TrEMBL record:
Native organism: Leptobrachium leishanense
Family recorded in the similarity comment: Belongs to the Wnt family.
Protein name as it appears in the record: Protein Wnt
PANTHER family for this protein: PROTEIN WNT-11, WNT RELATED
Gene that this sequence comes from: WNT11
Domain of life: Eukaryota
Cellular compartments annotated: Secreted, Extracellular space, Extracellular matrix
Length: 354
């Protein structure tokens, strides 16, 4: 099995543990690992079991960074589940860490997505932590070299993408660069997909502005470079997941490389996610294949997409049920300046797969 950093708590809550698997938190970590976890002395790094030597060195020299990485791991799990809520595979097996099922242990397209998202999220969280002042080793990103357009000026605090990518890749790629970390094919796959995740992160850097002027005239705009939210990055990676390329590890010139299985006349493109093993259809529960199945999953009766009852339920049919929805209603504006609303209940019909 490949060694990939993840975070979970051992049954003994006094012992903090990092184990080798994908870069995300299990439900146990979400419920037991506080974001205020104290890591203020170098000997505390020894409590984080499973770190490879280079990660241990990074921990000792950047204690504050570990807290940011723990926060990033929480975000991976939450973001992945939300991005795939309308798919048969919905990231639910992340909750089983460290005992992952085959959907994430093998080199599947699901594993490819999670590695890409993990790499992007770690770098994203570090870059944002620089902006908020949570990491003393970095500050705001650099001001762009080009002059702004008339009416614009550079200011604010840019997300420090360079530092985020630098430190994020040092941590997340370290296990795959060890000699004893599994097959060469898997290492190449995970390193490739992690880099794809960071490329999508870099492409998400955009100009953000704040208006200034009398009576909201916006005569001057102060602008900086900021990263998109993780949900947007996850959706971009989801698109790449849907078009991922199956590859094989075969000799190309003087060494083995990953090449597309069906069209091996060209090398793997740097922008595409790759996978080695085909995935099941995830219709039925099968622990051996890592399929949680779609029984009792909510579906959309009127949709034509992947969340439709026909596709989500794999033709097995679905059961309706009534659900109570509480909404704001009868809202009234009061001068000046607030709004009051009442709470109203209504019944809606929902559907779950048989």
């Amino acid at each position: 099995k490949i060694a990939h950093p993840t975070f979970y708590l051992a049954p003994d809550p006094t012992k903090r543990t990092l184990t080798s698997s994908c870069c995300f938190l299990s439900r146990r970590a979400l419920s037991k690992t506080p974001l205020t976890l104290a890591l203020n002395q170098t000997q505390h790094c020894k409590q984080l079991e499973g770190l490879v030597s280079s990660q241990m060195q990074l921990c000792r020299s950047n204690l504050e960074l570990m807290q940011t990485i723990i926060h990033a791991a929480k975000e991976v799990k939450k973001t992945c589940v939300k991005a795939f809520s309308d798919m048969r595979w919905n990231c639910s097996t992340i909750e089983l860490a460290p005992n992952f099922q085959q959907d994430l242990e093998r080199g599947t397209r699901e594993s490819a997505f999670v590695h890409a998202l993990s790499a992007a999220t770690i770098s994203h969280t570090i870059a944002r932590a620089c902006t908020t002042g949570d990491l003393p080793g970095c500050s705001c990103g650099p001001i762009p070299g080009e002059a702004p357009s008339p009416g614009y000026r550079w200011g604010g605090c840019a997300d420090n993408l360079h530092y985020g990518v630098l430190m994020g890749s040092k941590f997340s790629d370290a296990p795959m660069k060890m000699k004893k970390s599994g097959s060469q094919a898997n290492k190449l796959m995970h390193l490739h997909n992690s880099e794809v995740g960071r490329q999508v992160l870099k492409a998400s850097l955009e100009m953000k502005c704040k208006c200034h002027g009398v009576s909201g005239s916006c005569s001057i705009k102060t602008c900086w470079r900021g990263l998109q939210e993780l949900r947007e990055i996850a959706l971009d990676l989801k698109t790449k997941y849907l078009s991922a390329t199956k590859v094989v590890h075969r000799p190309m010139g003087t060494r083995k490389q990953l090449v597309p299985k069906d069209i091996d006349i060209r090398p793997v493109q740097e922008t595409e996610l790759v996978y080695l093993q085909s995935s099941p259809d995830f219709c039925l529960q099968n622990e051996k294949l890592g399929s949680p199945g779609t029984q009792d999953r909510q579906c959309n009766k009127t949709s034509n997409g992947s969340d439709s009852c026909d596709l989500m339920c794999c033709g097995r049919g679905y059961n309706p049920y009534m659900d109570t929805v509480v909404e704001r209603c009868h809202c009234k504006y009061h001068w000046c300046c607030y709004v009051t609303c009442k709470k109203c209940e209504r019944m809606v019909e929902r559907y779950v797969c048989k």
